[in-house]
């Protein structure tokens, strides 16, 4: 009876997550339509060819299957063996939580949690998840820097960090808040140092961090040595990452052309990776708003794209991601991600 209630609560929370994000996207569309003009946004969406949208969705899904292969290879490098389709199930489960939890790393934590239940090499399994994430982000940044350096640097249209429209404007605008946050943290630290119980707490904390930090550092060093001793695997997963991201961006470029965006493809290969990197910040559910806003603003300010079609392209990307992540919800509801369904370490099979 209790188990049934737990399952029901999980299903309720699952549908609530889906509802919250869907409502957030709907609210963003309505707000944008009021701010930018509903007619422009609606006209842009009416131009979307369903065939091209399905193609972009299909490309993204295929890319996710290959990303699961990337993680599978990283796990095997650390002698954590997992069936490929089990990796696919866990990856899509993680993809769902990435799109329906704050930031785009919630699913990574979930993947790491479930992998540790199936192997005694728990640290290595967890590390593989975050190495996988780092490789993905590094690939995005390298693509953006490469195309920026090749096509925009020194040729006009640079993305600046200073000046009235630069990225440092944000820090200048909020310098007072940043100052007081630093002051509050400094006062709290001084209070701990001056109080006897605070000093004892700091001493125990430092001792705990030192002891466990040494263990983690040793395991981390050993794991990285294994990765470095497998350069072919690392090169393969990195090359696969770059190829899949370029393929995904190309799909959105085709969709952008259908929307009437005449900006060259090079802008897509710069702006999309930057949007993905900014969306990784855990400030909203699945990066909703952060990713779309940054992508639309980049296209409007640096590629001379109209607001309606820029926002339509950004929202199309979000819709593609949400649809592609829905299999993760099905996997969650069916329990296909649970330990009883598969074993990771073949030498120590589950009972």
In short:
With 351 residues, the protein is an all-alpha fold. It has twelve helices and no strands. Helix 11 (290-302) packs antiparallel against helix 12 (307-334).
What does this structure look like?
The protein is mainly α. 78% of the residues lie in helices and 0% in strands. The chain is built from twelve helices and no strands. Helix 3 crosses helix 12. Mean pLDDT is 77; it is low at 160-167 and 341-351.
> How many beta-strand runs?
0
Could you give the distance between the termini? 25 Å
Largest sheet composition? none
Rg result: 23 Å
How much of the residues is beta strand, in percent?
under 5%
Q: What structural category arises from helix and sheet content?
A: mainly alpha
Helix coverage percent: over 70%
Which geometry do the CA atoms define?
globular
Spans of 5+ residues with little confidence (pLDDT < 50)?
160-167, 341-351
| Overall pLDDT confidence | 77
Q: Work out the helix count.
A: 12
Quickly count the domains. 1
* Run of helices and strands: HHHHHHHHHHHH
Any key phrases for this structure?
351 residues, mainly alpha, 78% helix, 0% strand, disordered C terminus
List the helices and strands and how they pair.
Elements: H1 2-46, H2 50-77, H3 84-100, H4 106-115, H5 122-152, H6 168-173, H7 175-194, H8 196-228, H9 231-259, H10 265-279, H11 290-302, H12 307-334
Helix pairs in contact: 1-12, 2-3, 2-5, 2-9, 2-12, 3-4, 3-12, 4-5, 5-9, 5-10, 7-8, 9-10, 9-12, 10-11, 11-12
């Amino acid at each position: 009876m209790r188990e049934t209630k737990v399952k029901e609560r999980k299903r309720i929370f699952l549908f609530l997550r889906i509802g919250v994000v869907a409502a957030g996207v709907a609210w963003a569309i309505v707000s944008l339509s009021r701010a930018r003009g509903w007619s422009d946004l609606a006209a842009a969406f009416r131009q979307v060819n369903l065939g091209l949208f399905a193609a972009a969705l299909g490309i993204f899904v295929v890319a996710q299957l290959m990303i699961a292969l990337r993680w599978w290879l990283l796990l095997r490098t650390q002698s954590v063996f997992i069936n490929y389709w089990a990796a696919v199930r866990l990856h899509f489960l993680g993809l769902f939580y990435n799109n329906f939890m704050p930031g785009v790393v919630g699913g990574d934590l979930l993947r790491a949690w479930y992998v540790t239940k199936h192997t005694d090499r728990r640290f290595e399994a967890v590390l593989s998840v975050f190495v996988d994430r780092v490789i993905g982000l590094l690939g995005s940044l390298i693509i953006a820097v490469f195309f920026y350096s090749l096509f925009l640097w020194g040729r006009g249209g640079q993305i600046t960090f200073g000046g009235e429209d630069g990225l440092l404007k944000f820090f200048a605008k909020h310098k007072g808040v940043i100052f007081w946050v630093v002051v509050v943290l400094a006062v709290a630290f001084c209070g701990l140092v001056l109080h006897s119980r605070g000093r004892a707490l700091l001493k125990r904390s430092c001792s705990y961090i030192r002891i466990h930090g040494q263990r983690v550092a040793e395991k981390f060093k050993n794991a990285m040595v294994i990765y470095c001793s497998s350069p072919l695997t690392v090169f393969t997963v990195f090359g696969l990452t770059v190829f899949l991201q370029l393929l995904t961006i190309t799909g959105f470029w085709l969709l952008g052309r259908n929307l009437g965006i005449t900006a060259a493809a090079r802008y897509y290969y710069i702006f999309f990776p930057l949007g993905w990197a900014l969306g990784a910040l855990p400030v909203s559910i699945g990066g909703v708003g952060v990713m779309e806003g940054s992508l639309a603003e980049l296209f409007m300010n640096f590629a001379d794209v109209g607001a309606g079609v820029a926002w339509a392209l950004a929202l199309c990307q979000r819709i593609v991601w949400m649809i592609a992540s829905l299999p993760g919800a099905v996997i969650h509801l069916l329990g296909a991600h649970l330990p009883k369904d598969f074993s990771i370490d073949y030498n120590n099979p589950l009972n």
